């Protein structure tokens, strides 16, 4: 589904309960320069691992819910186009 757009996949086979995998983007944690702001982990697709579970582990590294996924949300992109 994601093809060549993803450099690394971590997979553990088929889901036992039929719930899709949670997909996160943590690339901003490694693409930081010395002068850049701290990176965050973005949820790209909600799934078996909940936001609350990720929050327990990641704390402030998890992107706030009000910012999450807007780049991948066509409706939000249309809103930005109208505001421009």
Keywords:
84 residues; alpha+beta; two-stranded antiparallel ribbon; globular; disordered C terminus
Could you explain the architecture of this structure?
The longest helix has 10 residues. The N and C termini lie far apart (32 Å). With 84 residues, the protein is an alpha+beta fold. It has a two-stranded antiparallel sheet with strand order 1-2. Helices cover 21% and strands 8% of the residues. The protein is globular and about 45 Å long. The chain has two helices and two strands.
Summarize the structure.
The protein contains 2 helices and 2 strands; from the N terminus they run ββαα. The protein is of the alpha+beta class and 84 residues long. A two-stranded antiparallel sheet has the order 1-2.
List the topology elements.
Layout: E1 23-25, E2 42-45, H1 51-58, H2 74-83
Antiparallel strand pairs: 1-2
- What pattern of helices and strands is seen along the backbone? EEHH
Helix content: 10-25%
The biggest beta sheet reads: 2 strands, antiparallel
Task: Specify the structural class.
Answer: alpha+beta
């Amino acid at each position: 589904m994601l093809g060549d757009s993803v450099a690394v996949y971590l997979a553990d086979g088929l889901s036992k309960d039929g719930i899709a995998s949670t997909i996160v983007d943590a690339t901003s944690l490694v693409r930081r320069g010395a002068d850049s702001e701290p990176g965050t982990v973005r949820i790209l697709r909600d799934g078996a691992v909940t936001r609350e579970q990720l929050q327990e582990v990641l704390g402030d590294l998890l992107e706030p819910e009000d910012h999450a996924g807007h780049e991948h949300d066509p409706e939000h992109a249309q809103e930005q186009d109208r505001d421009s």
